[in-house]
Amino acid sequence: MVNAEPVLTGGYPKEKIHWAMLSFFLAQGLCFASWASRIPDTKDIFEVHYAFYWGLVLFLIPVGKFIAIPLAGYLISKLGSRTMVQVSIFGYAFSLFAVGIASTIWMLGIFLFCFGVFLEFM
Questions:
Q1: C-alpha angle 61/26/98, rounded to 5°?
Q2: What is the DSSP secondary structure assignment for residue 12, as one 8-state letter?
Q3: pTM as predicted
Q4: Are the C-beta atoms of 115 and 57 separated by less than 8 Å?
Q5: What is the pLDDT of residues 104-118, one digit of tens each?
Q6: Which residues contact 95 (CB under 8 A, 6 or more apart)?
Q7: I need a labelling partner for 19 at 20 to 30 A (CA). Which of 25, 44, 76, 106 fits?
Q8: 53-70 b/e with 16+ CB inside 10 Å = b?
Q9: How far apart are CA 43 and CA 1, in angstroms?
């Protein structure tokens, strides 16, 4: 029989942790779905007719995620996961809002990059 160590819950009941994680990932999915449903409208607003350029702009989300991987690990070890989750929730919501108010394709690219970074921090 393997002796497994108990999972640390910080004094919170496991059911409360379960519902907190469920609501966190549900909110993250709803935010990303709100962006995904606006992609065609955003493409029309910025009048990007060449698919290659639009693909490069959209590719900035995974580029931001890729760059944020080592940064997230470092920041979590220095600041703690609770602080990083709080920062990432604010940054994720702000970058989603900023994508909606971007006035140039360059601003959109920067905000999509930030969107990917904060998505990875979560």
A1: 40
A2: -
A3: 0.79
A4: no
A5: 989 999 999 999 998
A6: 111, 112, 114, 115, 117, 118
A7: 76
A8: ebeebbebbeebbeebee
A9: 58
